[in-house]
Design brief:
The chain is α/β, with parallel strands linked by helices. The chain has 2 domains: 203 residues, Response regulator (Rossmann fold, 3-Layer(aba) Sandwich); 147 residues, Response regulator (Rossmann fold, 3-Layer(aba) Sandwich), CATH 3.40.50. The chain has 12 helices and 14 strands. It has a 7-stranded mixed beta sheet with strand order 7-6-8-9-10-13-14, with helices on both faces. Strands 2-1-3-4-5 form a 5-stranded parallel beta sheet, with helices on both faces. The protein has a two-stranded antiparallel ribbon with strand order 11-12. Helix 1 links the parallel strand 1 and strand 2. Keywords: Signal. This is Amino acid/amide ABC transporter substrate-binding protein, HAAT family. InterPro entries: Leu-bd, Peripla_BP_I.
């Protein structure tokens, strides 16, 4: 088929169309004009993507982009949106809050954008949320895990929804952190450890949630360190941790820093497992950390994609589409995020003349979205969080991530 996607990645990429071979064809498809199959009778509606398409985290960001493109293409083929046809517009946030803010402003200024899938980083989501909310554009994240994004400054004591336009299909750090703590304490039998985080929103929040549960279980945190995410040499932290002799290191952050930290810990004589959250769950972590990464651990949201029938089909469809980048850890979640917006659009676009007319209706319709996604059941609570709380623990074995425990967190 000819795959139509308007792809804009800030200053680094041009608007382009992408032709990818897959099963079937669509006559008359020749770019991002929205002409469609009927020779000009299609109306264009756009789904934006905000994710890191360049830089250290681009592997995750590109997997997000392509997975949304796959969801859009399949929706276009189904004809479920009538005379509306979806185009995907991707913006590169570089994993940086200020760049993400500019990307959101660009999408908000496009009156054909009805929803956005993004962001990867919780720290980027913060400045993006109010811009899209003001424009009445639905935002669905496949990867943001900081609980404050949906439940306000005091998510545990007095939760309060901040933006009605914001949803996410992944679970949060208030679930992922404790899940990791229980795994290390109960399953791995590690009763004392050290923590390290990168001082960013995601990393610090994850370590805070982990530490609270780990201590509650009876575990001892013998050291709590931080690193500078702009550096790649951690000699001082390694020396400090080695002196405390922890039995494991729990890391809050992402794989570009976690991998060299793991490598340097082992090289420094502290041969203990490093465990992180979904931010390190990528083949890139293993590639960067090297052979010493065997035994390292990670948690990620949901069950392994390949363990679910719908997940297997998603991976098959993704491969058949011929994308040059793998779906990575968040591909399935990005697909479900895109699909959730599409499900809402089936309601909001039914009687709409323009996209702008349907923006608020799309936000309203999201509250009732419920479907069996490729990651499992997708539905949202009153704060915009996915009601599914399934997570998986993974261990690096023979140079590959291997799932070792999947369960619903209670």
């Amino acid at each position: 088929m000819i795959r139509r996607s308007v792809i804009s990645t800030g200053a680094t990429m041009l608007v382009a169309t992408m032709a990818l071979s897959a099963c079937g064809t669509r006559g008359g498809d020749s770019g991002g004009s929205g002409d469609g199959d009927g020779g000009g009778d299609k109306k264009v509606v756009k789904i934006g993507v905000i994710s890191p398409l360049s830089g250290d985290l681009s592997a995750l960001g590109l997997g997000i982009q392509h997975s949304v493109e796959l969801a859009a293409e399949q929706a276009n083929e189904s004809g479920d949106l009538g005379d509306w046809e979806i185009e995907v517009v991707a913006q590169d946030d570089e994993g940086k809050p200020e760049v993400g803010k500019n990307a959101a402003s660009q999408l908000a200024s496009d009156d054909e954008v009805i929803g956005v899938v993004g962001t990867l980083n919780s720290s980027v989501a913060g400045p993006v949320q109010p811009i899209l909310d003001k424009a009445k554009i639905t935002m669905v994240s496949p990867a943001n895990t900081n609980p404050t994004l949906t439940r306000g400054a005091k998510p545990d004591d007095s939760p309060e929804r901040v933006y009605a336009s914001y949803y996410r299909v992944c679970t949060t750090d208030t679930v992922q952190g404790p899940f990791a703590a229980r795994y290390l304490y109960n399953e791995a039998g590690i009763k004392e450890l050290a923590t390290v985080h990168d001082k960013k929103t995601y990393g610090q929040g994850l370590v805070d949630a982990f530490t609270k549960e780990y201590k509650k279980l009876g575990g001892k945190v013998v050291a709590a360190e931080t690193i500078n995410p702009d550096e790649d040499k951690y000699d001082a932290v390694v020396s400090s941790l080695k002196a405390k002799d922890p039995k494991a290191v729990y890391y809050g952050g992402e794989y570009p820093q976690a991998a060299p930290l793991s490598q340097q810990l082992k090289a420094g004589g502290l041969k203990v497992p490093l465990m992180g959250g979904d931010g390190i769950f990528s083949p890139e972590f293993i590639k960067l950390a090297g052979d010493g990464s065997d035994g390292d651990l990670a948690t990620s949201v949901g069950a392994p994609t390949e363990s679910l029938d719908a997940g297997k089909k998603f991976l098959e469809d993704y491969e058949a589409a011929g994308y040059s980048d793998p779906a990575e850890a968040y591909g399935a979640y990005a697909y479900d995020a895109g699909q959730s917006i599409i499900e809402a659009m089936k309601v909001s676009l039914k009687d709409a003349d323009t996209v702008e007319d349907a923006r608020q209706a799309t936000i309203d319709a999201m509250a009732d979205v419920e479907f069996d996604g490729v990651t499992g059941k997708v539905s949202f609570d009153e704060y915009g969080d996915n009601t599914t709380r399934v997570l998986t623990a993974y261990e690096v074995k023979d140079g590959e991530w291997t799932d070792v425990l999947t369960e619903e967190f209670k």
